[in-house]
Amino acid sequence: ARNSLQKKGINPDVLYLSATPIPRTYALTIYGDLDISMIKNKPIGRKDVKTIIKKESEIKDVLYKMLEELKQGHQIYVVSPLIENNDELDLKSVVILKEKFSMAFPNIRIEILHGKLKNEEKGKIMTDFENGKIKILISTTVIEVGIDVKNSSMMIIYNAERFGLATLHQLRGRVGRGNEEAYCYLISNYDI
Asked: What is d(CA 72, CA 116) in angstroms, rounded to the nearest whole number?
């Protein structure tokens, strides 16, 4: 698509956009010697997302914060690197997390979203989340881009050490899209 746009006319101006911070050396590799412009200001009213690293043994602190956010009527994302359990990897899957969070919050609607669901199912779940019917959405990285739910004030990323910095940045960008304070908890038993 880019090539066809660049071939329209004689030397057309082209603007490449990325919401992910790209280190200078990568930018040079990808885009060559193009002029770089950076938007350094957030939209008016947006606050910084507070990012907090916790070990799994400290999960009670996170659960209390989740309860506080739910009481304020906010919604929460929980992200996992796996859809189902894998005995060889000590990772939390979306299936296991749904069980655990359903026990912690028995009267809250919690749903799972991942890439293996049919498009109609994914669409229904996202519509229900956008409309506030789902309070906790447990997902893989399918929510990484293109999701804009202003009422989402908190994200918990399990096994955060499994994700690259750009992915963590993109995921964290799903919260703090309204005027409310937002939080991103990175859960990892490793030093990250």
From this structure: 32
Give the pLDDT confidence of 116-164 residue by residue, as tens digits. 989 999 999 999 999 999 999 999 999 877 788 999 999 999 999 999 8
176: left (phi over 0), alpha (psi -120 to 50) or beta: left
Radius of gyration of the chain (CA): 19
Amino acid at 147: I
State phi, psi for 164 to the nearest 5 degrees.
-75, 165
User: What does the alpha-carbon distance between residue 115 and residue 84 come to, in Å, rounded to a whole number?
Assistant: 12
- 180: Cβ contacts below 8 Å, ≥ 6 apart: 47, 74, 151, 153
82 DSSP assignment: B
